[in-house]
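Researcher: Here's a chain I'd like modeled. Treat it as a single chain, no partners, no ligands.
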Amino acid sequence: MTKYCLTVTCPSTRGIVAAISTALAEQGCNIVDSSQFDDVETGRFFMRVSFVSEEGTGLAALQQSLAPAAQAFGMDYAFHDEAEKMKVVIMVSRFGHCLNDLLYRWRIGALPIEIVAVISNHMDYQKVVVNHDIPFHMIRVTKENKPEAEARILAVVEETGAELIVLARYMQVLSDAMCQKMSGRIINIHHSFLPSFKGANPYKQAFERGVKLIGATSHYVTADLDEGPIIEQDTIRVTHAQSPEDYVSLGRDVESQVLARAIHAHIHRRVFLNGNKTVVFPASPGSYASERMG
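Model: Modeled as a single isolated chain. C-alpha cells:
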C-alpha cells in the first residue's frame, strides 16, 4: 500500500476535517496519522494527514477527489508520496560539525533525503563529501563576485532539482534576491544568543556574562538576517566551572541536533509558514526509524 501525506491550509471554518476525511475514504484511503491547528488570531487553519491508499488510488485521482472541497473552502493543499525523498543541497564553510552529523544521519537513513550536492566557499570538506559519492562544488564568495557566485549556486540548485538548501554553518550572508527566490526553502542554524550576543565569539561573550543556558535556533532564511520563522530550538545547561571552549563544544552538539530536527520536520511536510511564525506538527509514528545502524 502506498503511503501519502496531505498538507492543507485555508481560512478557518467548520466542516473542513469532515470534507477531507470523506474525500479520502471515498478513494479507499485509511488515515493513520493526523494533526491540525486552528489559529484564532489569524483565522487560518492548518492540517497534515498521513494515510495509506488501500485500493491503489494514485495522486491524480486523489487530487480530483479533493478538488470540490478545496474550492469550497479556499484550500492551499498538496499530496505527497512519502516514499519520495526530498532533494537537498547542503552549504558549509569551515565549521564541519553540522555537515558531518547530517552525512551520518543520511547514511543510516535517519534523515531520508537525497543529498544532490554540497557547496562550500572553502576546500576543507571536499574529500569528506566526495568519499560519500556526493558532488562537491567550491564557489568562492567575495564582495566583488557575490552576484556571480550566487548565480552559480542557484544554477546547481536548478540543475539538481533541489527542493531545499541547508546552511550547515555556511558563513556568508545571502542576498535579498536569493532569499526571496528560495523563500521557505532555505534552512539555517545559529546559536540562540542573538540578539544578545552578536558579532565574533558569541560563546566567549556568553561566558563573560555568566549565562546558565546556551542553545541553538534553526529557522527559515529571509532577507532580515537571522529573523526568519523559527522551526526548532533547544538549550543545554552550563555552569560557572566551564570554560569558553566548553561552551563552544557543547554548543556544537546542540546546533547539530537542532538543525537535524528542523530538516526532519521540513522534509516530512510538518512545517507550515504562518506569517512570521511557523506551525510545526509532531512527527508521525515510525518517521524517526533508521534504515540501518552505523
